[in-house]
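Example record for the data management plan.
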Amino acid sequence: MSAQSDLDRLLTEQTNPRTAEIDRLGTRGVLELLNDEDQRVAPAVRPALPALARAVDLTLERWQRGGRVVLFGAGTSGRLAMLDAVELPPTFGVPPERYVGRLAGSTSAFAVAVEGAEDDRLAGAAAASDLRAEDVAFGVAASGRTPWVIGALAHARSVGALCVGLACVTAPEMAAYVEVSIEVDTGPEAIAGSTRMKAGTAQKLVLNAFSTALMVRLGKVYGNLMVDVRATNAKLRRRAVRLVEQAAHVDAATAEAALAAADGEVKGAIAALRLGVSPAEARKRLTAADGRLRAVLGDV
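Corresponding structural encoding:
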């Protein structure tokens, strides 16, 4: 069976009987059909949670050894991977080099599609050439068969990196190259083959859940507060003050003063206020606790 016929058999490439008459409808009818299909995405993610949890737990171990998470994808998959990666530094204080998205065709393909790039398996291997054994290679491909992504995973696996795959079909080709295969069966798209739709939505949900769960497990969240936020603009500076107010049970003026004394570090300001210690002592205790505020405060 040829690669082309393999692709033709994928559910993501099939026509959807529920939307077969979509071009006969008015605008409201088109939107309702699209929304009906969207409703199917989150329930489709649920069965993949055990695999997703395993991926998070294995990644946590690599991260604590100093490893990176490097996401690989082409087209919509790669753009979603890059989007998730670039949000983590301001949200969770993650060094940008620790969590990276790589796109077939290079970063310029984010704005201008380079469609043929996804077929170059050797280029995918080259994109993963800097990975080490302590790193995590996370391949994202709706079809589960994108050559560029498989090339990246194959190389990453050859150097001992943990390999994770996310596909929107069951039993993807990519599964042979990964330790953990996250499979979300989103079925035929509303517009046949347009995997930027339901498959893209599923990928966004999984990527968000993966990175957020990893950050929670790393202690970058206290309760449900993003206490490692980097206050790099007015909105985030106000959020940082509010976080200290909430977690330390103080007023805004006290929170602002504590943040200033802690060089803008939310965790440090909270720990100093709650424990009645200096910012330097708070920072020392946080370092000893691997940054886990709950442990420092003793409310584990």
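Summary line stored alongside the record: Residues 129 and 155 are 7 Å apart (CA to CA).
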